[in-house]
Design brief:
The structure holds 2 protein chains of 2 kinds.
Chain A lengths: L1 H20 L8 H7 L8 H19 L11 H14 L4 H11 L2
Helix pairs in contact in A: 2-3, 3-5, 4-5
Chain B lengths: L1 H8 L3 H16 L17 E13 L2 E16 L3 E15 L7 E2 L2 E15 L2 E9 L5 H5 L20 E14 L2 E10 L12 E10 L4 E10 L6 E9 L6 E10 L2 E11 L7 H4 L1 E11 L14 E13 L2 E12 L4 E15 L6
Antiparallel strand pairs in B: 1-2, 1-17, 2-3, 3-4, 3-5, 5-6, 6-7, 7-8, 8-9, 9-10, 10-11, 11-12, 12-13, 13-14, 14-15, 15-16, 16-17
Helix pairs in contact in B: 1-2
Classes of the chains: A mainly alpha, B mainly beta.
Chain lengths: 105, 356
């Protein structure tokens, strides 16, 4: 019985999350918008700065959940680590892209 | 949606969970923001991991614990990753208990050897031997260079360290200031000593609020052998922005017992920016374990147990740390003091050209 209740709770949570997710990009904070409006390839210093700020913020928030934020490794190593952490540490694709951009700049 | 509710109502909670996860992934796909494009970033195989030398004195008996745990990461293209971790641990004790030379064997284990395929931004498929995604300690806090206190939590054996089979997992921003992460897995039975696993199915869902730096997770597991028991776990983590403080906690309830731990850890940079304070962390932990009748797991305490602990970590640099702790185990089987002190180290180097 408990398992069924938990299953229903999980189902509801997932559905609510999925449906609210469609509106997520429209609800981002001003800070996030400044960064996420930077398109696929940043073309200006301002865009680079915005990505750097957002990347550092996400780096501190995500990596610090389990361990001391490490120093920067060489870019190829960092790319491998971030892929590993994406699988291991519940980092979303979006977080991964900002963190990797920040750590390899 | 009706299909999901019907599945849940009929008792097919695993099916319902899988369906809900699939729907979540499909429905939330448009939510991905225009983050920087990092596809094609060059990678290199890496060897990393942790090593530690941590003598433990429990009830007057000294154990010299030496561990080296290498992790090998081999990225293949943009979407594949082979990752593996082994552990070599020597627990050396005095031959006659409290005097005489230390002796012991090196225990070798393969903790994971898995192939990951990043199918899309919200889904990664894993096959092989993987760390069971039940709660958070086993999967994320276990390495010696990460854990704040070197002694294992009493409920760690309830988390079933590794599984052999298939796992689907991923994460996505579900709303403003909310990331959802999920994992669903199936494991097959293996009685091989090195590759031991149980036949089970399970899932975990985690809500993470980045602005509050708050994480809450729920784990479910259903054993498909022997007792067909259900296992439940929940975990919590909070890192307030106002203080360099981590508060972590887990609760687990299985057929082998139930229990919890709560662990606050404070960096003393909150008190002073002097170097010695900035590099020092004070940790506390309180935990309780409650036995269940008929439990056969020999790795958990045989009687109800509680244990307060306090510890100190000093970070010489990123990856190198001195650690010490004191705990008092209180149990009807006997009370005992537990002292630990030692060094932990995290290493990392590329297998290939320089990493640049």
């Amino acid at each position: 019985m408990v398992m069924r209740i938990l299953a229903v709770v999980l189902v509801l949570a997932a559905i609510v999350a999925a449906e609210s997710g469609n509106n997520a990009s429209g609800n981002k904070s001003t800070e996030s918008n400044a960064a996420t409006s930077a398109n696929v390839v940043p073309s200006s210093t301002a865009q680079n700065a915005a990505i750097r700020v957002e990347g550092e913020k996400r780096f501190r928030t995500n990596c610090g959940r389990c361990h001391m934020a490490p120093h920067k490794f060489p870019p190829r190593m960092m790319a491998t680590f971030v892929r590993h952490m994406r699988v291991r540490a519940l980092i979303t694709d979006e977080d991964m892209r900002y963190i990797l951009a920040y750590m390899t700049e | 949606m009706t299909v999901i509710f019907k599945a849940a109502r009929c008792g097919g909670w695993v099916t319902a969970l899988c369906l809900s996860l699939v729907m979540s992934v499909l429905l939330s796909a448009p939510a991905l923001a225009q983050a920087p494009d990092v596809s094609g970033t060059a990678t290199v195989p890496v060897v990393t991991g942790g090593a530690a030398f941590v003598p433990i004195v429990q009830g007057g008996q000294t154990t010299l614990v030496s561990i080296i745990s290498p992790v090998v990461l081999v990225p293949l293209g943009d979407k594949w990753l082979i990752e593996s971790r082994a552990a070599f641990e020597g627990d050396f004790v005095r031959r006659d208990g409290t005097t005489g030379p230390f002796s012991g064997e090196i225990q070798k284990s393969l903790e994971y050897l898995q192939l990951d395929y990043i199918a899309n931004p919200h889904l990664t498929a894993t096959v092989g031997r993987f760390l069971t995604p039940f709660s958070m300690y086993n999967e994320r806090l276990y390495p010696v260079w990460i854990r704040d206190l070197q002694a294992d939590p009493l409920i760690l054996p309830l988390e079933q360290s590794s599984s052999n089979g298939l796992m689907l997992r991923g994460g996505f921003p579900a709303a403003h200031d909310l990331n959802l992460n999920y994992a669903a897995y199936f494991s097959t039975l293996s009685s091989n000593e090195t590759l031991a696993s149980e036949r089970l199915v399970g899932g975990r869902i985690v809500a993470f609020f980045p602005n509050q730096r708050l994480e809450i997770g729920f784990s479910l597991e259903h054993l498909l052998q022997d007792t067909n028991a259900n296992r439940f776990g929940t975990h919590f983590e909070w890192q307030p922005r106002a203080l360099p403080l981590d508060i972590r906690s887990e609760y687990a309830d299985t057929e082998s017992g139930r229990g919890y731990w709560i662990e606050p850890a404070l960096r003393l940079s909150a008190l002073s920016h002097a170097r010695v304070f900035a590099h020092t962390q004070v940790v506390g932990r309180f935990q309780q374990f409650f036995t269940k009748p008929g439990a056969t797991n020999g790795d958990v305490p045989g009687a109800d147990t509680k244990e307060p602990e306090i510890g100190l970590n000093y970070y010489f640099m990123d990856g190198l740390r001195a650690t010490a702790s004191y705990g008092r185990q209180l149990s009807s089987e006997g009370n005992a003091n537990i002292w630990t002190s030692g060094i932990t180290y995290r290493f990392a180097f590329p297998l290939g050209r320089g990493g640049y």
